Amino acid sequence: YVRTGRVFQWGGLSDQFDELQRKYGVTLELLKFFKEIHYPICFSTKGTWWVYDERYRELLRGQDNWNVKFSIITLDAEKAKKIEVGVPSPQERLRAIHEYTTLNKGGATLRLRPFIIGVSSKDYKDLIIAAHDAGADAVTTEFFCLEARSVYTAKEHYEALSECCGFDIVEFYKKHSTGSGYLRLNRKIKVRYMREMKTLCDKLGMRFYVS
Predict the structure, then answer these.
(1) What is residue 112's three-state secondary structure?
(2) Please, which residues have CB within 8 angstroms of residue 182's CB and are 6 or more apart in sequence?
(3) Which residues does the chain have with pLDDT short of 70?
(4) How far is CA 100 from the centre of its chain?
(5) How far apart are CA 184 and CA 131, in angstroms?
(6) CA 137, CA 19: separation in Å to the nearest integer?
(7) Does the CA dihedral 65-23-70-142 come out positive or negative?
(8) 81-91, pLDDT tens digit by residue?
(9) φ/ψ bin of 94: left (φ > 0), alpha (ψ from -120 to 50), beta (otherwise)
(10) pLDDT at position 12, please?
(11) pLDDT digits 0-9 by tens, 115-141
(12) What are phi and psi of 43, to 5 degrees?
């Protein structure tokens, strides 16, 4: 994979631009190496500080094969604060998209995932337009899946989600999903949102990806 230059996905399970990285700089050291060998990377992050840090900006300038997926699930700053604890506001992340895309031609992607009905569904079109206006040229999305086996161990998280959605999210997923355990909403509920997102992205000239 490395020999053939397959794109390295960085940030799927942890954030390479979190506050520990600001302090210790392990990501910074690795990026120096990856820049030296001009290796293609696709990042996924909720962080913003790094686009203003000159140590990172120096590495980002002129880099044309580093794409960053900026993860934003809603424009509603209050709901985002309750769901994504300790994360910069959606507006700060949109500003980071703009800042990043002025540094190089690697491209920025709006990572609208997980798409949460009751939260993301309220303003997803405005969010996509805002990301486009900030400089993003692609959107990737995936519907929130609920792990029913963690309902009791993650009780506070589900309660916060339910409050933001305006309904009991656990009961909603049990009613509209098939199977048990890891619950995915049925296609009938999801398809309308997918089609409308695809139509909007086509209109804006953005690439559109769905998991």
Answers:
(1) strand
(2) 145, 146, 147, 148, 149
(3) none
(4) 15
(5) 27
(6) 27
(7) positive
(8) 999 999 999 99
(9) alpha
(10) 78
(11) 999 999 999 999 999 999 999 999 999
(12) -90, 155
